[in-house]
Amino acid sequence: MKYLKSPLFFISLLPLGRLVWLGFQDNLGANPIEFVTRSTGTWALVFLCITLAMTPMRLLTGWSAWISWRRMFGLFCFFYAGIHFAIWFWLDQDLDLQAMWADVVKRPFITMGFITFVLLIPLALTSNRWAVRALGRRWSLLHKLIYVLACTAVLHYWWHKAGKNDLQTVSIYGSVVLLLLLCRLPWLRAYLQKRQT
Questions:
Q1: Is residue 191 helix, strand or coil?
Q2: Which of 60, 148, 168, 188 is least surrounded, with the fewest CB atoms within 10 Å of its CB?
């Protein structure tokens, strides 16, 4: 299992590689900025789901390797969310802090996206072993923020799609996130552990 970490790292870069390839091929569609923004946002949500899935997978299988991959997937979530945010701030808001803040206040889906990204920052900055040692028990408490930002991320996606009356895909992501969060309930954790193979 430990030998899979490097392949998983490069696989996690494939969405970025695809965007770069499509860019060189001039195949990003009629609105390249929207295409890249939407794609990086979707992959940030995908990696958030993968990160949340690591604990249930450990409970089901008893393999500790899942937890060793959790930090890497969490950082990829931040990586794609960072690109998603940077494109919006740079190309949509023209690096104008006042315009950015006005957009955050005005549009609920932007508000949720902004909150999600802000919550991701301390998690990414403290995802190293030094932070674990330095923060002690506070580290675990801090990283419970992932449950909050999982909800705000889904709300960000939900409000965005609601404006287009297109809730089918976001409903799937919402259901997945809800299921992964429910796996944290004590009685369900105990049930999953009993089913270890």
A1: helix
A2: 168
- Closest by CA to 75, choosing from 64, 86, 83, is 83
CA distance 41 to 39: 5
Q: Fill in the amino acid letter for 181.
A: L
In terms of C-beta distances under 8 Å and separation of at least 24 residues, what long-range contacts does 63-66 make, across chains too? 63/1, 65/1, 65/2, 65/4
Cα distance between residue 181 and residue 186, in whole Å: 11
Per-position pLDDT tens, the chain of length 197:
667 888 999 999 999 999 999 999 888 888 888 899 999 999 999 999 999 999 888 888 888 888 889 999 999 999 999 999 999 999 888 888 898 899 999 988 899 999 999 999 999 999 988 998 998 889 988 999 999 999 999 999 998 887 677 788 889 999 999 999 998 888 877 777 776 65
- The residue with tokens 């890249």 is 36
pTM of the model: 0.91
- Helices then strands, each counted (H, E), the chain: 11, 0
Asked if residue 180 lies in contact with residue 49, where contact means CB atoms within 8 angstroms, the answer is: yes
Task: Report d(CA 40, CA 102) in Å as an integer.
Answer: 23
Alpha carbon distances (Å) from 86 to 26, 28, 91, 102? 21, 18, 8, 17
